[in-house]
Amino acid sequence: MDYKSEIAVKLSEVTGLELDQINKLIEIPPQVDMGDYAFPCFALAKTMHKAPQMISQELKESGKLDLPFLSEVKNVGPYLNFFIDRGVYAYDTVTEINNLKDDYGKDNMGDGKTVIVEFSSPNIAKPFHVGHAFTTIIGNSLSKIYDKLGYKVVKMNHLGDYGTQFGKLITAYRLWGDEEALNKAPIDELLRIYVKFHEEEKNDPSLTDSARENFKKLEDGCEEEVALWQKFRDMSLVVFNELYDRMGVTFDNYNGESYYAKMADQVVGMLKEKGLLVESEGAQVVDLEEYGVPPCIILKSDGTTIYGTRDIAAILYRYENYHFDKNIYVVGTPQALHFKQVFSVLKKAGYDFADNCEHVGFGLVKFKNMKFSTRDGNIVLLEDLINESVAKTREVIVENSKTRGVEMSEEEISEIAEKVGLGAVIYTYVKSGRERDIVFSWEEMLDFEGDTAPYLIYTYARTKSILRKALEQGIKPSQAGSDSLKFLNSDEEYQLVRSLNDFPGSIVKAMNSNEPFMISRQISTCARNFNRFYNNSSILGADTQELKEARLALCEALCNTLKAGLDLLGIGVVERM
Ligand code: ARG
C-alpha cells in the first residue's frame, strides 16, 4: 500500500500545494513514536501567512486530514505526524503480498522502455575468476530488477574475443597445442600454451612475428585462422556457459569485441566526416578537453583500432537495434575513465543518447584466511570458490540434520548444499554497496546467524516448516483480505509489517542507484524483524484461533517477500533444511 501517496494527495487538496512538492517534503521519521510519515509545514508559511506551528495545529484540528487508514494525526511543533493504524497496515500489507506472491514488488513504471544491461563480458581463453563474478552477479541482479519494474531488458555479454593475443594463441596452438587436453579442459590448455608462448618468445623473436602474421590473417578472414579462433571461442563459451547455468544466468546476446571490430571503419568514417579526428603522435584521436578527460585514441599509429573504438561501434549498434532508454555497463571501477572517454566521444559527435549510457562500477575481491590452489598468478577461480562454499555448507547441513534428528536423502542434501553454498557466494557480492571492496571469509559468509544468504534461506525454510506443521494440525493461514489480519498489531508485528511494506520501495531505490544491495538490506531487515517477532510471540500457541491464523498469514507474507527478494539477487530458496 502506498500510504505516502494518499497522504500527499490529501495534503495537496487541503493546502493547495503542488503534489510534487508535497511528495518531496514528506519524511519518514527516524523514530517509531513520531509516526510513519511526517510533513513539515514550513513551505506553507509563505502562502498562508502564518507560522508553521500554527498551520500544523490548524490542519490537525480541522480533521480534514483524517484518512481511513490513519489511527492518528499529531501536530508536533511545525510538523504533522501521521500514524497508520497498525491493524489496517497489517491487513493491507499481508493481503497485498499474499495475493501477489512471487510478483510482490512488481511495477509497470518501465513499460515501453528498453534497458541494455551489459555484464560479465569475460575474455575468452582466459579463466573465469572471482572478479568476473562481481560483474556477473551485479549485472544479473540489475537485469532482474529492471525486468521486475516493467522495463524491456536486453542482457548483453560483450565477450573479449578480439585482439593480438589471438594471433599468439594460434601460433602457440600450432606449435604446442594438445587437442585432447583442449577438449577436456579448454581454458586450462589455452592458458598453458599462452603462458608458454610468452616464455619462449623471450628467446625466439620469430614467434612474435608469427603471432602478428596470424592476427593479421585472422583480421583478413583467412579460413584456417578464423576456424581456430572460432574453436577457441566456442570451447571457452562451453566452459563459461556451464558456470552461467549453475548460477542461473542467461544472456540475450553474446556479440563480442570481434563483432564490433568489423564496424570500426564506420566509426572512423563518421568521426572523420564530423572533423573530430586529429593526429597525435601518429595516432588518430578525438580531443576531449572540454569534457575534462584525456583524448580518446581511435586508430593506433599502425592504423589498427583499439578497445575503445569497438566500444563506440557497440553503442551505435545498440542504439540502432534497440533504441535504448538506458545502456548500462557493469564493469570494474578501473575502467571508469575508459567509459567516460567513450561516452564523451559520442556526445561530441552529437549523439545525445550518450547521456543515457552509464558505467556501473564495482570494487575488488579480497580473501581473509582462505587458501585456494591458485593457478596463474593470484587468480582465484569462481568455480573453486563456489565448490568450496558448497562443500562447507554441506558439512553444516549434515551436522545440523544429525543434531535435529532429521532424515535427509543424499540427493536432498546435495540440492540444499548447492543452493545455499552458491547463495552464500552470491550474497557476499550484493550485501554491500558495489563500489566497496569485498572481503571473503568463510566464517562470515556461512554464518547462519549473520547477514548472509544461509541466514535468509534458513529463515525462509524454517518459516515454511512452521506453516507445514500448522497444516498438519489443521490450522490454515488467514486468507488475504480476512479481517483477522487486523489483529496483527503488536510492536513486533508492526515492525515486521512495516519492513515488508518497504520492500517494493527498495526495488525502486535499487534501480535508481543500480545498487542491488538496497534489496539485500531490506530483506535482511525483514528477516531480522521476523525473528524478533518469532522469538517473542508464539505462533501456534497464540491465544485465539484467529490470531494463530493471522500470524501464519504473516509467516506466508515473510516467505513470499524473502523469496521475491532473493530471486532479484539471483539466489534460490529451499523449502526445508
Ligand atoms: N572483457 C573486458 C575485461 O574482462 C571487459 C569488457 C567490458 N565491456 C566493455 N564494453 N568494454 O576486462
Which hetero ligands occur in this complex? arginine
Main sheet summary: 4 strands, parallel
User: What is the terminal-to-terminal distance?
Assistant: 33 Å
Low-pLDDT stretches: none
Tell me the strand order in the biggest sheet: 5-4-9-10
Oligomeric state as shown: single chain
How many H/I helices? 23
Estimated structural class: alpha/beta
What's the CATH superfamily of the largest domain, by name? HUPs
Query: Which outline best applies?
Result: flat
The CATH topology of the largest domain turns out to be Rossmann fold
Mean pLDDT score, rounded? 95
**CATH second-level architecture of the largest domain:** 3-Layer(aba) Sandwich
Structure in words:
With 577 residues, the chain is α/β, with parallel strands linked by helices. The longest helix is centred in the middle third of the chain and has 25 residues, at 223-247. It folds into 3 domains: 3-84, 2-Layer Sandwich (Gyrase A, domain 2), CATH 3.30.1360; 114-262 and 307-360, 3-Layer(aba) Sandwich (Rossmann fold); 382-569, Isoleucyl-tRNA Synthetase, Domain 1 (Orthogonal Bundle), CATH 1.10.730.10. It has helices spanning 3-15, 19-25, 42-48, 52-62, 86-100, 130-148, 165-176, 179-184, 186-201, 206-219, 223-247, 257-261, 264-273, 307-322, 336-348, 382-403, 410-430, 442-445, 453-472, 491-501, 503-513, 517-536, 545-569; strands spanning 37-40, 70-76, 79-84, 114-118, 152-156, 277-280, 283-286, 296-299, 326-330, 357-360, 365-367, 438-440. It is flat. The structure holds arginine. Residues 118, 121-123, 158, 160, 311, 329, 331 line the site of arginine. The site of arginine has 9 residues, from loops.
